[in-house]
Write a structure and sequence with these properties.
The structure holds two protein chains of two kinds. Chain A is mainly alpha-helical. Chain A has helices at residues 2-5, 46-66, 83-92, 96-125, 132-146, 151-162, 175-193, 197-211; strands at residues 15-17, 24-26, 70-74, 77-81, 169-173. Chain B is α/β, with parallel strands linked by helices. Chain B is elongated and about 215 Å long. The chains are: A mainly alpha, B alpha/beta. The A-B interface holds A 45, 48-49, 52-53, 55-56, 59-60, 62-63, 75-79, 193, 211 and B 2, 27-28, 30-31, 33-34, 37-38, 41, 70, 134-136.
């Protein structure tokens, strides 16, 4: 209860914060005089956008796991691996650490990100017992960690640029690399679409609820 | 923290909820993004689905190197599908390879499509599929260009089909004759050009012969006609015959890899049809031989019954007319026919088949198709006519030293009348005549006998007789020389004669080749010289012997000339004599003596010797001439001349008898000087010794000249008449 008590939201203060330049203005201001972006106290379409992008990302995540990520041709023999398949191959060859990194960056983190965004969007829409501070921490983490999912895509990009020795050895990105990159991009957009201020609204509601009687 | 103070002025704060906006306003446009994504995904899925070709099932014996997911199906080296799964068929006896075909090609993969696995292969005919070493094997498929609807079930083949469906070419079936080994994948060549290929040989259904499918590619398929013959060019053949040794192989590649060649030897025939069977012969000559046989199945059969021994006659032996083969012996059986021959002798019944094609009967024109019976009839008519004219069968050797026999049909001019017995069973009977079997052993014996008949003994006896006579002559000559009348001519002259003879033989034999004829002519010349000497000497007693000797020698010469090879011993001893004579350092001796003569001349030129009369000078001149003649390699004639010179010298000496003692003294002095000169040279050398001997002889000659002079004084004609 204590953390709710000492939080004063901009809305409570009759202000609206600019999301771009973080300057606070009176709530009636519509255009940020500072940076010129539209000011809105709460983004009503935020959750819709979160879910929309989340869905696109999920759609992209399916082929990213089905199709091969990398097509390696060495002396005429072509081998292609999906993300999970590649990790398993690596593990079979004894490179457990590398396999673990790939699994973590390409499977665990995106999956967790999906779950985290979904959880945030749900928990904001219907008040739950989760503390806003935890939610906010989760949101920060999702935002921060999201970009690191691109590590797999970077590896593929660098490899295909470097290993280009004609028929002796060449690495080409598979169709999964594109969709995986799209997945990462869309989850990031999804996370960015989330209006983190909504987290604090439920606190407000709670205050209203508790003080009303 | 908010204070809610109930103020009457303030209206109560309303709990307001904003009115719900219409659905179309509430739904954000951002939903178009996932919608688009879904649409794209569905569209892609549909497209992929619709572009997917059929999954065909190819059953292979084994799936060596085929990997699910990556092995490709290629048609003309273009990828037209991929293997999706490799699994066993029910019963585990085959491997089912499921291939996803490209949709655009699927319609062509109909019933006649053929599939096989292309692997790297190193065979005697070359290396193939090398590209698959790195990329892995692939399945190759061929089908024709006629879309016939996809057939989902195919049987895979272990090898590429000989002739791809849709390709032009002629498929044949080759049957290996005895001694022919058909090699899979071996080339078929036509005049050195590779025009086809042999498939995998298999045993025929009756397990009697090996057969192999073969293909002749277009446009060479036009070359194969019903009269075409194939033969094996693989390996090499080595034959040793009357025409010499023959090593035969067509090319190094066919030596290793094997191969078949063909040719159409005779014109005519019809173009070969698909799947026609051809026999592959062991050699080109066999194939050519066979061409005529096949002109008309089998030959016209006849029977011949021989009473001779026919060991050496084999089935397949030729039947010839004047060396031309017109048929084969097809069977040899023994018969005992008491009813016919009235005895129980075993006779040999030979079946022959005469080839009407070889007979070239005018009634059997090559172009006209005649029934077999008519051909038989024509050949039998022909033979019957010829038998009436004297044609008979006989056995003959195939060669001088060969033991093989053949059957010959010969015209015997005065043969007893006979007929072709056409009623004979099983085939018409050709009458026989005496066999002509050359017996190599008998021939060799005859040759030995003739060699034995050569008069070698006689020849040897003649030679011995000649030698005896020569010895007798020598003895007689020495008797003659030692005779009291001739004793005036000292034994030294005999020694001189011996030397001269040595010179003669040396000079004669130095140029003597080993050839006997030349030696014999020299021998004759020697004999003639001897005869001349004897005539000059006119020794009455010796003449008879000499004549006899000469006659004997003449006889020997004649005998030796008749059979030169019979006198190797004689030649050898003569050669030996020649060699001994050659060893004498006569040339050197002559040179030395010439030097001595020169010294003598110098001596004579000396003022102290001027007192010696001119006659002596003339004598010396004569001697020098004689020596010059000797040096010229003169013959016995030189001896005669020497003697004549000596005679004239003697005459001269006679004229200057008073000076003779002085001459002798001078000569002696000269000799001393000469020997002193010679002493300066190497004492031990052969030349020196010979020269010394010559000097001694000369000294003795001087003495002899002296006594000769005396003798001549007494009897001037003794030199001519003897005694």
């Amino acid at each position: 209860m204590s953390d709710r008590a000492d939080v004063l939201t901009a809305r409570d203060a009759g202000l609206v914060g600019c999301r771009d330049c973080t300057r606070a203005w009176p709530v009636t201001t519509e255009i940020c005089p500072c940076c010129g972006s539209a000011l809105v106290s709460r983004d009503s379409g935020s959750l819709q956008r979160v879910w929309a992008w989340w869905l696109v990302a999920l759609i992209c995540y399916v082929p990213a796991n089905i199709y091969p990520m990398l097509r390696t041709s060495t002396l005429g023999s072509v081998s292609q691996d999906t993300i999970v398949g590649g990790a398993i191959t690596l593990a079979e060859h004894g490179s457990y650490s590398v396999a673990a990194i790939i699994l973590l960056a390409s499977v665990v983190i995106p999956t967790l990100k999906f779950l985290a965004i979904a959880y945030l969007a749900i928990s904001v829409a219907r008040p739950a017992s989760t503390r806003p501070r935890t939610q906010h921490l989760l949101y920060e983490m999702v935002e921060y960690i999201g970009r690191w999912s691109m590590i797999d895509v970077f590896v593929v990009a660098i490899l295909s640029a470097l290993v280009h020795l004609g028929s002796i050895a060449s690495v080409e990105p598979g169709p999964a690399s594109l969709t995986f990159a799209l997945t990462v991009v869309f989850t990031m957009i999804s996370a960015q679409s989330f209006d983190s201020r909504l987290i604090w609204d439920q606190l407000e509601d709670e205050k209203d609820d508790t003080l009303a009687p | 923290m908010r204070k809610t103070t109930p103020l009457p002025l303030d209206p109560p704060e309303l709990k307001t909820t904003p009115a719900r906006r219409p659905l179309h306003q509430r739904i954000s446009l951002v939903w178009l993004v996932p919608l688009t994504a879904v649409i794209i995904a569905v569209a892609l899925a549909l497209q992929t689905w619709s572009a997917r070709g059929p999954l065909i099932d190819i059953a292979f014996e084994e799936a060596s190197g085929i990997a699910a997911g990556s092995t490709e199906l290629r048609y003309r080296d273009v990828i037209v599908g991929h293997v999706e799964t490799v699994e066993f068929e029910a019963g585990l006896d085959k491997v089912s390879v499921k291939v996803r075909l490209n949709k655009d090609i699927a319609d062509y993969v109909d019933q006649d499509a053929a599939f096989w696995v292309v692997k790297p292969e190193v065979t005697t005919t070359g290396v193939s599929g090398l590209n698959t070493v790195l990329s892995g094997v692939f399945i190759a498929g061929v089908w024709d260009a006629e879309p016939g609807g996809v057939v989902l079930r195919h049987e895979g083949q272990s090898k590429a089909p000989l002739l791809a469906p849709g390709d032009a070419g002629l498929l044949l079936m080759l049957e290996a004759a005895a001694g022919v080994a058909l090699t899979a994948n071996a080339p078929i060549t036509y005049k050195g050009l590779e025009v086809g290929r042999i498939g995998t040989p298999e045993l025929s259904a009756d397990r009697q012969i090996a057969t192999a499918p073969a293909v002749i590619f277009a446009p060479y398929d036009q070359l194969v006609r019903s009269t075409t013959r194939f033969w094996d060019t693989s390996g090499f053949s080595f034959s040793l015959g009357a025409s010499g040794a023959e090593l035969d192989f067509s090319s190094l590649s066919s030596l290793i890899a094997g191969g078949v060649s063909f040719d159409t030897v005779i014109s005519g025939g019809v173009p070969a049809a698909q799947d026609d069977a051809f026999q592959v012969f062991a050699s080109q000559s066999d194939a050519r031989q066979n061409v005529f046989d096949a002109g008309r199945g089998t030959g016209v059969p006849f029977t011949i019954i021989f009473e001779d021994n026919v060991s050496g006659l084999e089935i397949g032996a030729p039947v010839e007319v004047r060396g031309l083969k017109i048929g084969d012996v097809t069977g040899i059986t023994a018969i005992v026919d008491e009813a016919r021959y009235n005895d129980s002798k075993v006779r040999l019944q030979i079946s022959v088949e005469l080839n009407p094609g070889e007979l070239r009967l005018a009634s059997l024109d090559a172009g006209v198709e005649i029934a077999d019976e008519a051909v038989d009839e024509a050949v039998e008519d022909f033979l019957a006519r010829r038998v009436r004219g004297g044609l008979r069968a006989r056995l003959a050797s195939t060669g001088l030293f060969a033991t093989g026999l053949k059957v010959e049909l010969v015209d015997v001019p005065d043969a007893p009348a006979a007929e072709l017995r056409r009623d004979n069973a099983p085939y018409p009977l050709i009458p026989v005549t005496e066999s002509d079997i050359s017996d190599a052993a008998a021939s060799a014996e005859g040759m030995m006998a003739r060699l034995g008949d050569l008069p070698i003994e006689e020849l040897m006896q003649s030679a011995v007789r000649f030698l005896d006579t020569a010895t007798g002559l020598a003895a007689n000559t020495s008797v003659l020389v030692q005779d009291d009348t001739v004793r005036a001519i000292p034994g030294d002259v005999r020694a001189l004669l011996g030397d001269v003879r040595g010179v003669v033989s040396a000079a004669e034999t130095q140029a003597l080749p080993v050839q006997g004829a030349r030696l014999l002519s020299d021998l004759n010349a020697t004999v003639a010289d001897l005869r001349g000497l004897i005539t000059q000497v006119e020794e009455a007693r010796a003449v008879e012997k000499l004549v006899q000797t000469v006659e004997a020698a003449g006889a020997v010469a004649a005998s030796a000339e008749a059979s030169l090879s019979g006198v190797p011993g004689l030649i050898e001893s003569l050669t030996e004599t020649a060699a001994t004579a050659r060893d004498l350092p006569l040339e050197a001796l002559v040179t030395r003596v010439t030097d001595v003569v020169a010294d003598v001349e110098t001596l004579l030129e000396h003022p102290g010797t001027r007192a010696i009369p001119q006659t002596l000078n003339a004598t010396l001149e004569e001697m020098r001439l004689a020596l010059a003649e000797l040096r010229e390699g003169g013959s016995v004639a030189a001896l005669n001349q020497t003697m004549a010179s000596a005679r004239s010298a003697a005459a001269a000496v006679e004229e200057a008898t008073v000076d003779l003692p002085k001459i002798s003294a001078r000569i002696e002095a000269l000799l001393r000087q000469a020997s002193a000169t010679l002493a300066g040279y190497d004492q031990g050398s052969e030349i020196n010794r010979s020269a010394r001997a010559a000097m001694t002889a000369l000294a003795r000659a001087a003495t002899a000249v002296e006594s000769l002079a005396r003798a001549l004084e007494r009897r001037p004609n003794s030199l001519i008449m003897g005694r």
